## 1
Amino acid sequence: MLMIVSDEIENKQIAKQYKELLQISYQRLSGEDKKLIRSAFDTAVHAHRNQRRKTGEPYIHHPINVAKIVAHEIGLDATSIASALLHDVLEDTDFKPVELEKLFGKGVTKIVEGLTKISKLSKESDISLQAENFKKLLLTLNDDIRVIIIKIADRLHNMQTLDAMPEDKQLKISSETLYIYAPLAHRIGLYNIKTELEDLSFKYTEPIRFKSIKNKIEESKEEQSSYIKSFSKITKNALAEESLEYTIKGRSKSIFSINRKMIRQNIPFEKVFDKFAIRVVYRSTHRNEKFLAWKIYSIVTDHFVPNPTRLRDWITSPKSNGYEALHITVMGPDNKWVEVQIRSERMNEIAEKGYAAHYKYKHGGQKDIGIESWLDKLQEVLENNAENPVDFVENFKLNLYAKEIFVFTPTGDIKSLPKGATALDFAFNIHTEIGMKTRGARVNGKLVPLSRTLKSGEHIEIITSENIKPTANWLDFVKTSRAKSKIKSSLNEEKKRIADDGKESLRRKLKHLKIKLNDKTTAYLLRYFNLNSSLDLFYRVGLGTIDNKQLKAFYNEYNGTFLNFFKKRITRKNLDVKKIDKEEITERFDTLVFGKEKETLKHSLASCCNPIPGDPVFGYITVNDGIKVHKKECSNALSLQSNFAYRIISSKWIDSSSNEYKALLKLSGIDNMGIVSDVTQLISNEMNVNIDKISFDSDDGIFTGLISVSVKNQTILNRLVSKLLRLKGIDKVLRE
């Protein structure tokens, strides 16, 4: 039952909240700033005057609270605070952008427009509306990062007041938050907000488990407080002797992260030993920060034995979101491992405020690090914004939570990459053109495969070649969103080139069958071959997966006795012309392959999760039933992967029409000068053929050669064999 409150009381509450907003601002507000915020406040109050939230309170409470988060917890400027107050005005009221611009100028209007959701979206079944919203949200990073930050603040307040929503809405909003908003907050450096978003989401997605862990944390608070006191007691005197100004406090691990650790390690709450960390925050000038951090490190390790494998120096090499600190794990009192975080006041502020503090403490001439360098890299990911929204968001998310490694270029420059990145990721990190032309890589002077996972401290050199171009296999070698995006873009261009050739080839082949290639014929062909667009059709003709034999079969049905029935069947389906002309080559996931070699093996689909084509999957080798294929998010996945890792085999769905197959060709003939060069050049110039291995032997004027190639299909292989036989000196080409 909602409590009825008089207008006078409500107005007093609103006025009180406004005063608090001005008082708690992280930034120093000038007279002009206060004037801008007041104007935004009055406009928002008027625009939302007749609206109420699900809680029953006036709607204006929401934008004020979002502005408070923006002002205090994130610490943004007056323009951001004003934009936060106005963030729902365009979406939920009759206000128009032109009116907003007249009152507040282009800056505020641009941010508020960026915050406004999409009202009319594509209703195609293969497009997620929420992904489309996320895509638009992420693309606003091109314009102003404040859009994202205010959106995160908006989501935080929505999560804080989620109790008023129905259960289905709670679950939906919480899942969205875990999916994109918490990782974004993490990547921008808003750790406190990230943690709160995760815990609040966990509260609604798994309420029973959340409550259980929360209660256990509450029960152990006294133990935690006692532990911090005993740690401080031992180090206090030593730190005081050095005349250091500092504070020591404990930081509890979040409920969400404790749960994640319990699941990942398959342990109960009691076995999670690092449920909290000890933080030493010291006062220092910018010049002495690093020196004092290592001094405190030395003092701590004089009293407690450190774990040398758990030292993390993010002062020398800050994280890409600007985070700086020394993290050490030591054997603390009572012989318990405890993480000690050493930060200056500046570092601590940046860790909590992120973006705003980064600029507050930025010194003249200081090299751009952190948030700015990340945004520069992000720009390149956002360039390729035409892809499917779901793929776009997934690619973007790849690096949001990734841990970092630091590697060196041949000239000694340091590069930050996500943990798990490969030599090919490094090539694309240097420059897109280098990535596209990568032939090989040297790590610490030794040649390594492109799929080699890099480690911190390694020196990497990239070998390039003008004759190299990306292949579909490269997508299996890379971890970073930038590399994936660029490879996909290149492959799509290649596919469209093949499709152009395929269209002309199809036109000639149909002309031979006395059929004219037009929209009507294309519609019949799409229905016959069960394809989604004309580009799909032309691409597969260009590849050779739709050959003359199949086209003749189509012709027979097209011209057969059942012509009228066939045409009616097509007409009934009402083929969409827009779909036919769609400039996207889609994949038809129809085949499962296993292992590094991508072999097709006998298997069955697990009944517990019923995977369908396209689902992320893995294979489990059973005792009696061969390979069982499970979804990666299957309820049994964690148990199988942790207890029977030796029986797990990697698996993925592929489009069999564009899959690569290996073939071994044996060549023989009369040896002559340049025969090896002729063969390799021919294969290099041949579309959709890649050389895996090659060897040649000569004996008294006769040569033999073995070539392992990867091809898309039999048609391409036959074409290659035919061209090889036309080379001078080659007598035979046999498939082994």
Note: The radius of gyration is 31 Å.
## 2
Amino acid sequence: MKGVLTPKSVAIIGASNDETKLGGMLVKNMINAGFKGKLYPINPKGGEIQGLKAYTSVAEIGEPVELAVFAVKNTLVADEVRKLGEAKVPYAAILTAGFKEESAAGAELEKELIKVAKEAGVQFLGPNCFGVMNPGAGVNATFAHLLPPVGNISIFSQSGAVGSSIIDWAIFNGMGIANFVTFGNKADLDEADIIHDIMEDPQTKVLGMYCEGITNGEKFVREIQNTKVKKPIVIFKSGRTQAGSAAASSHTGSLAGSDAVNNVIFDKLNIYRAHDLDDMFDALSVFSSCGPMEKDGIAIITNAGGLGVMSADAAFEAPNVYAVKFSEKTIEEIKVRVPTVAGLTNPIDVRGDAKPEYFKEVIDIVTRDPEVGGLVIMGSPLDTADLESVARIIVDMKDDIPVPTVVCFAGGVKCDRANAIFKAGKMPTYPTPDRAVHALSVLRGYTKNLDKAATPMEVPDVKGYETAQKVLAKAKAEGRDSLTESEGKEIFAAYGVPTPGEALVNSADDAAAACDKIGYPVVMKIVSPDIKHKTDVGGVVVGVKDADEAKAAYTKIMDSCTKNVPGANIVGVSIQQMVSGQEVILSMIRDPQFGPVISFGLGGIYVEILGEISQAHAPMTEEQLDRMIKSTKAYKLMSGARGLPEADVDAMKDCIRRIVTIALENPEIHELEINPVIVGLKGKGCWAVDALVTLVKE
């Protein structure tokens, strides 16, 4: 994708001398950016455009072109792409709007564009994108007239407006940009296609992404996992709420996806998810300026007690850092070298009238404390404080500070002058103590996750695929989008998922006989592809103790279900051995973007009452499996809390491994739920006592 990121030759399709028009803006922006390659304005009239020779078509150029940038009407785009194919132009950025984001007619134009581009062998960004930018290569193929300085932050943005805000922020804060890529409607190229090149780019230290939906989720995961070079990724993913999701769909035609699933994926890939643009900028700033943070402990230096208290509170609440208790050696050295210090605990209060050199001394001392992994420097614009001199001293010594360092000079005019010095010196600067501490917490969290073990999940030695495919094929042949409970359990059995003893009956007398054979107590359930939630329609009777109760239960179930779901296809009544233990829920849903997601938590009615489940994306590592189970209240109950007997956690893990295998081997399954799984005492196993399986709709 170097032809997109660092093109040596660019053609502007629809170039113009009128700089108020898009085609004119693009030519002007490329010239002003200092593009060192060959720039070819394309206009049917030919002639000269903004001092450059203009060509009537790409074919007229007669030389290779790496990137074509579009500024023509939406109805002309497909034909121009066809011409690119004839001229062997590999890449295009289509800034033109008026496609699926706008109307049904536009959606048809986009379908035609995709078809033509595929036939022509042209890969493209957009349509409806903001363009691409690479200040180091002199590329500004965007609407933006201002070019940020060269730096180490690469940006992906689905939205042109948000991308423009990011560029403006970078310029305002003196933050340099390595690459800037926008995707618009993502009709062809998306984040997954370019992320490998960004990770391999030596100029890029951190990638920031704004997106409304990740189109090819499974490829996105695969590309990040397979890249050899690991770099921080910060994502601001909008569409968290139902309203936001609807807005995303109408804006760019993309699916926002399940927000819970997005969190699972980002956690798996060690991606920091920003909650808003400020959070995104804060994270990009610390990753851009600082190296890894190897220890949890932070030191805080301030010239005002109040700011110190605020930062200490923030450290207490932050998930990945804490304010260290300094060693006696550190405290004694401060006493000797800076005797005027007001407070010797953490935060260190150097006093409002402290000489700028005192900051230097204290920084040198505390950053050598064995527990300190990061440093927060606070400043208040007191009349006695010379913040500008302090800022100069800190910037001068920043390369010698051995730990990641962030600054918060909180105030207005006086602080702004000092903060300008910090920004010029490429130090991460924040307006409030909590944001400064949070930035270090984000950095530490990323660093810790880099070191996490990644043991491939154990794959059970089972051969259930053929059985599963037969069951699924039968359901599809009958036009069903779900399996019966017995069919679901047939698949479970093929993959070695344990189930209680059971039988399917079609009369009260058969029910009594089957119960006698299985042994009491039993549970009896309706079997019908048309009834998914059996309890709601009177389709379940629990604790049947003898033959008479079995007959009565059969009659009750049949009467209730035929009354409440008239016309339902009733296969019979299932009789199951009752087992005892901890009830948990285990499920899989196939996310349309990312594929199988496994959920685990307290089962039975508690999953609805408490709403507490943990999730992991399949395939997962053994560590991710362990984390998914241990992060739940269910695990606390199963592990013997408050004197409770320990449950068979190992059997539960094995059950999850088998469900993961089912999901990965059978993409026809959309959703699978076992509620509950009964987990027996330690060493006694577990049982899937229910099975809800739905199929992917074709």
Note: The chain has four domains: 1-128, 148-284, 290-450, 454-500+579-698.
## 3
Amino acid sequence: MSARFFFVAVLLCAGLCAAAPMPVFHVAVNGDDAWSGTLPEPNAEGNDGPFLTLGRARDALRAAGTADGGMVYVHAGAYYLTEPLVLGKEDSGSEAFPVVWQAAAGETARIVGGRPVTEFTPHAGEILKADMTNFQLPKGAPRQLFFNGERQIPARWPNKGEDDMPGGKWAFVQTRSDAAPETSFVTASDRPAGWKSLAGVEVSIWPNYNWWQTVAPLKSFDAATRTVELGEKLPYTIEPGRRFFFQNVLEELDAPGEFCIDDASNTLYFLPPASMEAAEVVVPAVETLVRMKGAAHVAWMGFTMEACTAEAVRIEDCVSVLAGRCVIRNTGGYGAVVSGGKQCRVAGCDIYATGRGGVSLEGGDRKTLTPASHEAVNNHIHHFGAIFQTYQTGVTVAGVGSRVANNLIHDAPHIGILLNGNDHTIEYNDIHHVCLEGSDNGGFYMGRDWTQRGNVLRFNKFHDIYGFGLSGLAAGADGKFHYEAPHQAWGVYLDDCSSGVTVQANIFYRVPLCGVMIGGGRDNLVDNNIFVDCVPALHIDDRWDAYCWDLMRERLEAMDYQNPPFSTRYPELLKMGDDPRKPANNTFTNNVVAYTRDDYRGLSTAKPGSSTAVIYTLSPYDPETTTFDNNLIFHTATPKVAARSYKKDDAADVPWPDWQARGHDKNSRLADPKFFRPEEDNYMMRHNSPAFEMGIRDIPDYRIGLYRDEFRASWPPPAEERRDGGDHREWVVEP
């Protein structure tokens, strides 16, 4: 059964359960596991009614048999788990009759993986404390606390506070430790010298490049030299000017909403942000709320899932399993993870405030190119990456043949969608205000494997993506560190020789540093897209002889690319040549490139007040190996455009007439595309647009993003928090 057909079958099952020959059980907070579970509420005699726990309902379904399906209604209330609900092969339905677990209609059923903390006593001032001896928190779990459903902050220095910088206030590495650059550094402050104990103290740090962050334990602090030593070795050296802060420090518990967990005494210290009267304080204690392993034809729908140390839902080696219409929040890891199996779906969910990312899909066999056919569809994923901020994405898709569609992804520190594998379809997604805290990333990202081909990006919107990063050490005469935005963020980033990707019929706007970035790849098609205020629309460069080169060759050989199915599915791999690092056979055709402003600062491609719109940057590479043609170019200030080659003998901008004289863009035109309502970011084109005369097709903007159906967790979706990133911003930091 296909995933879509299964989705319909779930609806039928839910609607016809009363007439169908299937077991139906109820779970309620006023239930009793000794009862039959067949009644939605206790009877008048008080001797029968719903079950109390999810586990009892699962056992009852097993005993009844699920060959004809099954239904579990979970009624309003909070269900605090002490262990995951595990569903396996024995809990499966059939193609015609799935097993459905769902919140009762119109009721909010919360599945909570934390333990309420109720017995607080005064500690000092307004700080409270509670004994956590019996909580048995998972070892190595991230430190989390939730107050009335809101994530609280591990007591930190500097305090998060209000600051123009992403993530609030930071401390900064002063000098590098040459003796142990991956584990230690010197800071300007001797603050840790005043702390009674360093046990349990952590350091959240961006050690070197602004594409990677982690949380590491603090091992020691030398007050005389102000040297910080971490308890683990990082993969990058720790360089001057990089951001960090200390957290889980009892002496720094001085701001409302901060907490500290003392592992030695098993004590929680907490400074509440508001009155504790009738407040719910929860510490996550369960790793995963619902784990399905080997199950088939099961639907999990309509729940609010929260307060766990890892993901809320894990679907492993399952067939036709659905997680739909759920609100997933306040997790330590991802919202939902699908691993292995086939035809599983995460659909219609609101996923936010996660410690890592939103949805992860993995499945299929890359060596045989067998698709998994998983889907992440119609999900609202936002404000993720609360703990681990880099490479924790709105959606991660890996393996073969999955689909990511109609998701709204926004307000995140790093990548919107990350892809690995083959033959995936990424379509109708709206991605904006991502890459808020990192650089060298994008709304979409993939890289470092020549064999990851056949992937299609179509009908998506990428907009308001600016990036944030360290622009230079001791830049300028002031001798200070400079962080700035926009900084090294792209709409679609085909990094490290990504090849064989189709980027077609997407809309890019306000991505000032580049719409599509091709980093040394080949056989990529960029066709029939709209670029507005992307400077440039396209960048192509060579790749260098870097440390990852051996890894890429290993990945190439691992796929047996010279034999079927790779040799027949991707014959271009047989034509790699002696230097596959060089881009070749890329195509940029039928695109609309429009510029309505000149005041973005980019990576030497656009300057404030410039009257020249740079549509391509080529660095350093022979443009003869790329096809540029039949594009429509428009600039409101002047009809002048340029292409920059960066060759040693041609370092200057190439004016448009010269560019065409060299044989490029022969059939391209300079004209107004006549957008319908550009002031409202509606870039569909009027009927008299010259683009249509050129064979350029319109893009159905109205089909992009979330849509309303029976499986949406909320409608309209919660209001989006918009970030003002349209202007150049710079932060100057004392060394």
Note: The chain is about 5% helix and 35% strand.
## 4
Amino acid sequence: MKFILKIFNFFSNPIKHKPAEINLIIDPNIEDFVKNEILPGLEISPHYFWSSFELLLKKFTQKNKDLLAKRKSLQNQIDNWHKNNNLDFVKYRIFLEDIGYIVPRQNEFKISTWNVDPEIRKIAGPQLVVPVMNARFALNAANARWGSLYDALYGTNVIDEEDGATKEGGYNPIRGEKVILFSKEFLDDSIPLLTGNYKDVIRFEFIDGELSFALEDGTITTLKDPKKYIGYMDKGEGAYGLLFKNNNLHFEIQVDRSHPIGQEDAAGIKDILMESAVTTIQDCEDSVAAVDAEDKIIVYRNWLGLMKGNLKRSFDKNGKYITRELNPDRKYLLKNGKMILLPGRSLMLVRNVGLLMTNPAIKNQMGNPVFEGIMDAFFTVCISMHDIIGNGVYKNSKTKSIYIVKPKMHGPEEVKFTCDLFAEIESIFNLPRNTIKIGIMDEERRTTVNLKECIYEARERVIFINTGFLDRTGDEIHTSMEAGPMVTKASMKTQDWITAYENWNVDIGLETGFQGNAQIGKGMWPMPDEMSEMVKTKMIHPMSGANCAWVPSPTAATLHALHYHQINVHEEQAKLSKREKAKLEDLLKIPLLNNQNKLTTDEINAEIENNAQGILGYVVRWVDQGIGCSKVPDINDIGLMEDRATCRISSQYISNWLHHGLCTKDEVINIMKKMAKIVDDQNKNDVNYKKMSPSYDGIAFKTACELALKGIDQPSGYTEPILHEMRLKRK
């Protein structure tokens, strides 16, 4: 009721402002975009918008600068300590506590975040991360709430191609049989019959109002657990859908005997529609290349289209003109005769940029670009208000919340800064306190070691924590740069600190009341073409207590959803809450390369080549084409999802080994040239690609070299300063 009154007052008394001169230097295009696209329907004047933003900048810019200065100061102290001390854990921990890197420990508490959508509180399932700058990708991700299991299986290597089950050409019935067998085994596991198996089902019937199954031997059976059947969707002409729920996740058996697949199936099943990407992070950060007003308008316009529900993209696909738009909700008839609407779209969160970068789209009166993180918060919240007040075609948040994932925060002070920023924006836009929820990316070392204290600062807003191996490794290397050379990439994944990091995140989340209230997430599956391996291994994420984990595509979301039907995450979390907690001692173990002389020259070169090729493959698309995230072939021609996090870890590896004398500058440059030729060849079929060899004088090649050679000098080892500078030059 309070919220309703607040909204009523909002429109009864449109936001007023005291006349004030606006001293910002605003790109005319973004000024026009705000006036003509963002603000209509919000009863907010352009003057109020810009004057409020300017006041926000005045209040938070110096704080932002101070926090960045503290990062640098702490890093300098750590560098000096390693230069002057042998590594001893007890002394090292005391030192980190003395300088405020490790803060005083917080007493017991539980998060109190309220008004959170069930997709975050209650439903365990896949989470997509997608560059919001690409409208088509953004729409596909939002619509990935539901996905075809048959399509996901048929089009990937989850189903092998043995015995004639090839996927090239038209429909292959041999492969189709394998898909159907796999799918019916899934049904046997998730919604088992009282007797028999789904391969034996020839008909679905309703007897005395209960769903029954006729088997080919004449037996009539039911579900072992009848409560798993939820409802029915009539699709006309004898086609229908049967809705089930297992581990709080839905799927629909689609029956249509007139369909080519249904015609060949004994039970008439044409497909199984899986509830897949329960939530999606629409990303303004690592997966986009947004360096100026032109780019930021694209980012914000797509987010606006998602919030208003009118984002569309049309394109040619195999000779057919297709228009992509947001899917409607799905309507089912329940067993009790009532109708239910299930969301047709993922619940969307938006990831803002971190504290480091500025953007020239808006400058202060001195002509200095404003902090992009403050800009993102202000703009994305204002845009999200269209969803909050009901201006959109659909509802994103049923609880009228705004979900912002905040990356690259270093410790509790920066989390508090972000929460204070959100509170001020709520005040500006007359939003109820804590409307803006925060997702904390646990991807920087100082956040990890103080995770409980970070959560405490956000205890009224936090809805999400997760681990991010790549950024976290990048910070691990950079923080301890002076301690010595680091182990190889392959060895890094087996280090004690990694295991402690993954367990610590879950332990702290459960300790602070995340179970049933917020998401504990795990990182991205990096190989979009290796779905068979993902299906085999990514079950470890729900088993480790994560109620969401990142996937790179809608297809991957559908396949990863299988794991949440196999594992009841709530039950796993209950078990894990009783285990021995991860130890800070393990978390602080620095992954140093021992007996470095055992590495041969060939081994060193192979490692540098691997990292150099990854940097080049990513950077050439980023700088020359403005592609912030894409599938990039690695040195073995395996497609990997690359973004700034993968670039960060590769550049830090080379910088670390260069700093400690495992290689020389000339050797690195020569390897870069060698790898540039390989990357050129891998991209020979891309008409938009600009070759780096044989001149090696292009901006992209120079950028890659700078990232490797100057990685030690970059703040926290981030790649953004160099990438943004070079992309602006290229544009």
Note: The chain has 27 helices and 25 strands.
